[in-house]
Description:
single chain; 13% strand
Amino acid sequence: MKKLLTVTTAAMMAAALAMAGCGSPEADQGQGAGGSQNAQGTQAQGAGGSGGDKIKLVYWSNQRHDMEYVQKKIDEFNSTNDKNIEVSYEVMTENYDNNLELSFQSNQAPDIFRAKSEIAPYASKDMIIPIDDFLTDQDRERFGDTLGIENINVYKGKTYSLPQFGNTYRLIYNKDIFEKAGLDPEAPPKTMAEVREYAKIITEKLSGEGIYGFAMNLKNGYSSMYRSVDEVARLSDMFYYDFKEGKYNFDQYAKVVQAFADMYQDGSFFPGTESLDIDPLRAQFALGNIGMYMSGYWEVSVYDSQFPTEQNWYACQLPTIDGVKGVNTMNAAGRSFVISSQCKHPEAAWEFMQFMCSEDYMIGYHEQGYGIIVVPSVAQKAQPSKQYASECFTLTETDTIAPLAPEMAGLVIEGKTFYDAYAAVILGQDDLGAVTAQMNQVYNQALESAIEAGTLDPIIAK
Length: 462
């Protein structure tokens, strides 16, 4: 396992901000196969469609916040490339993984797709092809250390994806609500105990107006917790996987879960949180009905275009349990587009991939506030984004490209995931101690079995 890579160079501090995708064979919303759309809202044409001698490719993404920019750049590629390549673009934010699996099973996979999870799950199933034969020495020099990170863009010694952007996580809060509740908007909470206190005060004083202190999109355990519980645990050095021992240990993580469960028991959560998805949560925040929640840098563009708001919102470093003792990971950092193993024109897909990972594309994406460039050689050439609140997400020394826990690197768990199990705990539906004991047993047994079977290498970071 490659050593933890910290991406806080001076160059990157000057130029940075979110995520992206590019592909044709593969949050947080959209619709495809019963729920996909392109940026014009029309059904995208599949690979192999009629159209003369053009090489037609299909690219799937699970990101919607950057649709306008991505479609504009794809239109540019389609009109300027000299290889007669035409790319269709589909955005699918619901059931993305399931639809991707089904597309491969039916031999109708996209040619390029955005890697929603890390590289290992796709590479281990032979869903994607390595790009080493396409990479030049100049490419490797340009991308530097961000290109060779095991399980992020490299799997078992082969490279599958190019680094582009990452998203930092923050506590997002409404300054107007703070003031209304008698809280100092310039002094946001730094610990989970303070978050609980603030949430309780907001709810007690303003719930009569439909305003509540805190929110989580607990309709989806993974979607709600990777952006909140996971990152509070990381920053508190209470993460569920011990990278030194190479084992799962949910004992400390459970304490972070308890902090969120306490707020729910206080009645400080926005009502209906158990059936709340991320977009309805954003809509309520944009209306001024939620005091705080946790998410990533992509929220900057979400509130600029998807859910325009007059609210005086801001963001700050995530809280901890008892002080900053760890680091945060950067969402989606180090990976972007991958080429499907069912792609009939991999050379053409590589042409598109190069375009989408070019300096021009990355700099424009960053400066318009869609994501943080993680490639230092490119980041130093970009200007800071002028998008509202983008400065809140600028890289700090605690924002890193962190190694992946086994379940993100291909470990398969039968039954309920720890995200779903702990979501039930937060909602008061299950016992914290019992769930923790069960998750320690289930995950470590699965890990030992996978290593013994040779389907997963031990994951230890030094």
